[in-house]
Sequence to fold (431 residues):
Amino acid sequence: MVFISIQEAIKQGKGKVSLHGWCYRERGSNKLRFITLRDSTNIIQCVIEKDKVSEVIWKDAESIGIETALELTGEIKKDERAPTGYEMSITDLHIVGKCDNFPIQKDTSIEFLADNRHLWLRSRKMTAILKIRSTIFGAVHQYFRSRGFYEYQSPIFQPTQAEGGSEVFKVPYFGDSVFLAQTWQLQAEPAIFSLEKIYTLAPSFRAEKSKTSRHLTEYWHAEMEMAWSKFEDIQDHAEGVIKACIKAVLDTNQEELKILERDPKKLEPSLHKPFPRTTYTEIVKELEKKAKMKVEWGKDLRTVEEDILSEWYDTPVIITRYPKIVKAFYMKEDPENPKVVLGFDIIAPEHYGEIVGASQREEDISKIEDNLRKQGENPRDYDFYLDTRRYGSVPHGGFGMGTERVIAWICGLENIKDAIAFPRTPDRYKP
Ligand code: 4AD
Ligand code: MG
Fold:
């Protein structure tokens, strides 16, 4: 028997087909049973009439419950009343995997769904999100590879912190201890002397206790680093890769956006309009003027402020030149103003927060050492990193994009946890 997907069957629209999948819904009487079959591609209503099938088949049909795995053969035809516009009249049926009382029923709590995440992945919502996630991962690879970037990997076990010592996971390492990577960056910069333009898509780890709708302890980080860059090049690539993700989703996942009730019109400006570029100082002024929010110059922007300013734009906004004291030790001091760095964040619209963090890298070793000392770090621990500035240093920079934040925004999710199959947060590492 040749099985085709439900989507292919719907496309074919008529004739005899064989499908396999799982029972999504079932109802019926003692003469007629309606089984909605689902596979990874779609759902289809199937009808089994007692008079038209053998006794054995009818008996099997009566035993089908939600999530029973099935092989079905029958005639497919158009039917406006069916959920996806087609109905299949079943002539043969085979139960592949029984399922009694699937634990997830209607109206289960969020906590219950989280405990049963391994089963909840089968939901139409999670299926739609995971497909969009796959599109976005593909788009990131495609964007960089088609522009001459090499895919490159840094180690996950790292000797130092990179993005703030308090947010790092320390793990035992044969009597010593190491840190889980917060970023690929410190071992990526040495590789630009070999490959010049590199990117990665890898997990990053943050021991952030904050339980918010945008923080995970393990997330997938799309990062790039390039030699010979100007500050604007990094901004252009960050904007470029975000646009590429949106384009890929709009081209590939209209059905999934519909299932998620996400209006694609909300995403279109980000595809067609250039992202506004402004500075931290400008934003601080605007916050006071437009929103009566006073941010003391030198303080980092908080979630509340990012949310307010995100309402001013229908695309992501690029905010450059943050105060040096709030940013990482490796960011390049602005030659025109030593109080700020040539770094930028990209804030997504609709309250989805910071989706990219980036900078041109500091080349002056003494400045890097100074920054490290101010953070309570010993510059000698970073000697391997400082060598990048000792032996043929060139202007360079890069960025990191939180893929789950981008997925949450593109899908219009309420919580970042749904942007990944098995979310890891301060209070959940199971299942
Ligand atoms: O701004 P961050 O900390 O920047 C870096 O790690 C740089 N080393 C990147 C680079 O230049 N190569 O993190 C980058 C992005 C953030 O903008 C955010 O989108 C995401 O990573 N991110 C998180 N996503 C989910 N959960 C968390 N706890 C995150 N922390 C950061
Ligand atoms: Mg950041």
